[in-house]
Amino acid sequence: MEYAYLLLISLAVLCGVRMLPGDIRRVIGPHQFLAAVMLPAVGFFGHFYAIFALFTAGLILCAPALTMRGLVLADRHALMLRANLFMFCLPLMPMLTYTVAISGLTILQFTFVNLLSIGFILSMLLSGVRLRSPGLAMWDIAFVAMLAMQIFMDARGHQLTYGLRACVIVPLNLGIPYFAISRACYRSEPPNRIMLACIVAGCILSAVAAFEALRHWLLYYRMPAFIHADPEMISGYAKERNGLLRGRATWPESTGLSLFLGLQLTMLVALRRQVGSRIAFFGLVAMLLVGIVFTFARVGYIMIGVGLIACFLYERRWAHLLALAVLGPVVVAVIFALSHVSPQIAASIGAGGDASGTVGYRSQLLTAGLALFRAHWLTGMDMDQIYSALFFLRQGEGIIDLVNQPLTIFMRGGLFGGLIYYAILPCILVSLFVRSPRLLPESRAAGGACFAGLLGLVASLTTTSYGRNEISYVVLLALAAGVLSRTPARSPRRPAVRFGGAPVAA
Fold this sequence. Notes:
It is a single chain. By secondary structure, this protein is mainly alpha-helical. 64% of the residues lie in helices and 5% in strands. It is built from 21 helices and six strands. It has a two-stranded antiparallel sheet with strand order 1-2. Strands 3-4 form a two-stranded antiparallel ribbon.
């Protein structure tokens, strides 16, 4: 039954986007329709994780489409078509993790995201494209340094076997997606299209989240059990606000989905001229806002606020910034006034009684976390030491929720470890801002989407933890690296391939 509703929602959103005026309709084609139909079907009815894994990687490798001519496969050189499909599928399913272990030692760990990434990398190999991209070398080195610090933080304080596990899982879950997405953006023409494909997928999740909240029914909740993926630790049905279930769609929790949808809306504003129509633009904005409302989390609004400021700063639109400064407080005041009338609005912005305690908790965490950082600024601490020192913050669910990701990174890695981890971030942000006038015309708006998305995401993460949005952070870094490498002097030599919805017969 869940699959039937997911199918109806997905097809309704995709058909709605196809009917919108402008260029946005060209982002969606028969490949995306087939993926939206088949991915949940295999997730619910595949029975075995191996079947799901082979189908997911094969979906990108073969890029099938169902047309009037029957089932056709994309030409092996159609990398841009596959990049579009890859980014469309990226948020469309839960992570669906599957761990392969022998005697307690993790050998491999598969997720939906790294399966998609493996499929795209295999596509590049089969097309004859060189995986080595000199223009990306500098960013690859900075990202490897970030991964090395992540492995160190995960392994410290544990036995050797756990350290070996970190050496396997971190590159698989973060390194492979970065590699695939950075190359996809580097070789896509134009890169805006693959970002818009992900935004359309975000609209599907937004509709699913609204359905879940209104019907009190999590549509993806049972999917991991059907294909024997690793079970979830905390039930999504435990997350309510003012008596309303918080929609989460494919995310493990609603706060993460709110942040992701806010990120997609911010990137949509940066890419507004590529949408091709004001009607289409405002239609997509409305769809994303609906989902943010029904996650009942403040973080999505924080993401939008910071992201819009960053977007107009990147574009040097000083009048828009002034308008935000004037109208922003008015809009906030109106929303807070409406929250006293509507319980739904109050729950959405976290103004309800059951959400007010989270502000005090975050303030306590910040104070205690900064004290720990000052005491261990040189060496940092392992997670057991952090949890032991913050025992007084344990909540009703029996957990200590570290809802400030940058602070957590610096507590774990110390000052120098935190600087190594975040070294890539300021380099990318400064490069995007300074070099934006010199970027290729088709890359300038994509650079703005990455700039606004990264600033908004990092600012929002001071009120929450990574969760699945660690992948969102890696995706933004990869997209930004690809955009920055597409300078006139380093324009990649691309094969003559078609981009768009129309399939190419094999």
